[in-house]
Amino acid sequence: MNNDKGKNAIFDIGKYFSSANLKKDLPASIVVFLVALPLCLGIALASGAPLFAGVLTGIIGGIVVSAISGSQLSVSGPAAGLTVIVFGAIASLGSYETFLLAVVLAGILQIVFGILKAGIIANYFPSSVIEGMLAAIGIILILKQLPHAVGFDSDFEGDQSFFQADHENTFSAIVAASNMISYGALIISSLSLLIMIFWPRIKKMSAIPAPVLVVAAGIILTILFQNTGLALSPEQLVTIPVVNTFSEFTGLFSFPDFSQISNQNVWTVAFTIAIVASIETLLSIEAVDKIDPVKRVSPTNRELVAQGIGNMTSGMLGGLPMTSVIVRSSVNVNSGGRTKMSAIYHGFWLLLSLLFIPMLLNKIPLACLAAILLITGYKLAKIALFKKMWKNGKDQFIPFVVTVIAIVLTDLLKGVAIGMLIGVFYILRTNLRNPYFYKFEQNGGKKVIRIKLAQEVSFLNKAAIQYTLTNLPKESDVIIDGTDSMFIDKDVLEIIHNFKHNAYTKGTIVEIVNIRDNYEVPRLKELIYKPAKNN
């Protein structure tokens, strides 16, 4: 464990503001901001909450959570996976202020989860499932953004569920969009895709991020198309609340109703939000670490605390519950983000844009933002990833593909749960087949069978070992060697001792080598390397 205080500090000024990192983080933050803005608004709309609540949640997720979090590339904000829960909770609790209290309590619960080190469960997500989740998100981005790219914007930005609120599903929405093409939107998205593909190849101009050029071109075309047959409708543009005065700005905030603290329904909603938001966050953190070019490992318990503080702050000011969000985080990675400053900057851009340039932002067509997300989706779901998983063997490929299909046809959490079941099945299957190694030897005219137990022999190995010992040839010498075993389950020890006790009836001689009568599971702290102190 590294005890360097500078490296463990939340804010290392020299690291985060170095010129090398600023060159990466500033452009990436602008791209993340441009993508996050419509997502925040769309999720707020789908949740039945004020539009300002979505933007506020993005601001807090960017500035507060990112500053506390140990993840360098994760971006937090309102999550599509919580829209159904939020929409139902606001209706069932009777008022938005009562719902905000539930968000505050959910944040407190997440802090408790972090203190209790519940983040450790992230270590048990199979790698094949996380890879499948990334590929599925990429496919969903492509499928969901196709309607927006042609100007069919009946579904809210950020929706990841197969069944949509507009009574369409992912595939039927594409069919419906093909019959309702807006040629103005189609021209903008097509030009945007060309810029996204070819602009980065011009080395002299690559200092200007392609997404920024895409948005600028989109705004110009939106203005040029006015009063023509290619004009875009308000539904095809970003719609951010316009604030004219400071008093109007402060009037947008809402505050929790603490008089409902004893309301049982509030606590039920709080627990639901805390658990779902924590699981989504841990999944997202694992996925972001997978695509981090530097391969850094984020501290999951600290992330839960950061999310808890973020949700408490959001609930206190009138925002929505938040999680670490894989779409925005993926955009951050693909845009070249280097440190957490890119996420923090994006939070400030959201705040400043709301205060100073809402009218300009309301001219951004969703079609050009769809192009940015289409490219992000392609990068997440490249054919090379499927080939790689295929080469890794069916125990990796099958859980991977099942996760992809399940997420695309349901939603993130249900799909991951299905993928986990298949992944765990293959893990158990592999584990059951590898509890020991055995070797046949010959000692004169008698067979000698040496069974060398594995490093970890768990209860899951019980059936395989029982089967092997029962079917050993009669009148042989059997050596059961536990020299390499750090742990042997009590049920397995019982099987071994019972086998030795009854072996004489088959004319078998059993020798047990280096197997103790009892094994204790080491504590996690004992598995951490601690260098000896110098005297």
UniProtKB/TrEMBL annotation:
Pfam family, one: Sulfate_transp
Membrane topology: Multi-pass membrane protein
Domain SLC26A/SulP transporter: 22-401
Residues that span the membrane, as ranges: 26-45, 51-68, 75-93, 99-116, 123-143, 180-199, 206-225, 266-288, 343-361, 397-428
Keywords per UniProt: Membrane, Transmembrane, Transmembrane helix
GO CC entries: membrane
Locations listed in the record: Membrane
GO biological process terms, semicolon-separated: transmembrane transport
Main location: membrane
Database matches in PANTHER family: SULFATE TRANSPORTER
Protein's name in the database: Sulfate permease, SulP family
